[in-house]
Amino acid sequence: MSDKRVRVRFAPSPTGGLHLGGVRTALFNYLFAKKHNGDFILRVEDTDQSRYVEGAEQYIIDCLNWCGISPDESPVTQGNYGPYRQSERKSLYRQYAEKLVMDGHAYYAFDTTEELERNRKEVPNFQYGHAYRKSLRNSIALPQHEVDALLAAHTPHVIRLKVPEDQSVSFTDIIRGRVTFETNQVDDKVLLKADGMPTYHLAVVVDDYLMQISHAFRGEEWLPSAPVHLLLWDYLGWKADMPKWAHLPLILKPDGNGKLSKRDGARLGFPVYAMNWDGVDGFKEMGFLPEAFVNFLATLGWNDGTGQEVFSLEELIQKFSLERISKAGARFDFEKAKWYNAEWIKKQTAERLKEKVKTVLADKGIDIKSDAYLLTIIDLIKDRCVLLTDFYQQAGYFFEKPKEYDLNSVKPKWTDDKTDFFNAFKALLIGTELTAVDMEAKFKALAEEKELKTGDVMLPFRIMLVGGKFGPHVFDIAALLGKDETINRIEKALITFAN
Ligand code: GLU
User: Fold this and answer.
1) Domains and CATH numbers, the chain
2) Residue 253: which pLDDT band, with cuts at 50, 70 and 90?
3) Residue of the nearest CA to atom 2 in ligand 1?
4) By 3-state DSSP, what share of the chain in percent is helix, strand and coil, each rounded to 5?
């Protein structure tokens, strides 16, 4: 690597929720920056005011913070290269567009929207480029005095890039190798709009230059824009400072057919946003730990070559390398995402999970009175939880009596002997609190005495306490609930079971 300081940027447009592909782009930028002791910059590309969505910028910042990949420089943290919102840099861009006009690499275009519409209708495959530009209303086609008059009269106009004819432009992509484009396929992109705002193309080049960006990583969908940017880097005389580029592989639909879209999430029932956006739940609300989400995202298009799957953010920073990013699209697999989450829930200490579990339970109206009790329960059941939201199903019965019982599993086989057994067992529990081990011994001895198979009374006992056929060892549950609550649940369930 050159000795230029590593400075990378995540440059989203604040147009809505942050799709997981966007977070992966941010993550790869972050990992690379941290690995090389560089800077990770958030630049808000809000030049298209018509697509601007209130709240989207804050949402992006919140998502990055939730993932633990907060930027070093951003509209809210500042740095030496601000402002970090392109709309606030508006006055900066015109000079570069004008310089390009002066140097003959760009031109003023006065065509109205209606005129362009007409051309699009009348000319098949109309492209504002070398083939047609001479017959349109711009400073290349019109005589100089007319152009001067139009400018003097403040006629609305844009500045367009003059894309050369019959040339090839190429660059070396870190992931894809040499990529070449024919300029005849590229239209004369607008660089500066009539309202004085730059377009994405001009702004991204100017800002990558001014912010001294060393590497630019972005989604593969931006590859078609590369020739425009290459010409700009060249024409502005900055070619030597151009960042190294990597276009990240697409994230594909679960069946591998095409790019994962926001609609696929709704259609197939999985989240595509990092966090709730506009009423649509994200990974966070679905019960993902940020550690798991980040780990999962890192593996969409990258692996460390050893088969290791679970990585902490620290490990990812150490092991991340651009060489190991694949060219091929990465298929999205929600089951795999959940697997990562289960692994991460297992890995976390009860203490680390405590607040998150409290939130899940509070959402269901359960108020935690004792942290110590909650911590014990978390340790007992965390291996059974895939999503954080599973903590309600898996732990709710420690805090409230079952609302319903799996009666199909008990009623058909219920006998008076069993009623008798549980009444006797209840009586045994009165007195001192028993440990799980002691309780189990007494339970088994009583079953033997009453000539019942332990299994035949153990399942009903579980359903009495839990409501269903799940959960950890039943005597662990009973010991944690304590004798009073256990007796209480036996009594309550007997009414239903024995009738
Ligand atoms: N503003 C573009 C986006 O929304 C940035 C693309 C780039 O990184 O050049 O993703």
Assistant:
1) 7-74+204-251 (3.40.50.620), 90-192 (3.90.800.10), 253-349 (1.10.1160.10), 351-498 (1.10.10.350)
2) very high
3) 12
4) 50, 10, 40
Residue with tokens 């420089």: 73
pLDDT digits (tens, 9 = 90+) for 207-252: 999 999 999 999 999 999 999 999 999 999 999 999 999 999 999 9
Q: What are phi and psi of 171, to 5 degrees?
A: -155, 165
Which atom of ligand 1 is least distant from the CA of 225?
A: 9
Angle, CA of 380, 384 and 385, to the nearest 5°: 110
Q: Residue 1 pLDDT more than 70?
A: no
Task: Give the active site residues.
Answer: 262
Q: Whose CA is nearest to atom 3 of ligand 1?
A: 12
Mean pLDDT of the chain: 96
What local confidence, expressed as pLDDT, does residue 4 receive?
A: 85
Mutating to test ligand 1, I would choose from 48, 87, 200, 230 the residue with most ligand atoms within 8 A of its C-beta, which is 200
Residues with CB under 6 A from ligand 1: 11-13, 45, 200, 204, 218, 222
Bin 460: left if φ > 0, else alpha if -120 < ψ < 50, else beta. Answer: alpha
Quote the ligand 1 centre to 11 CA distance (angstroms). 5
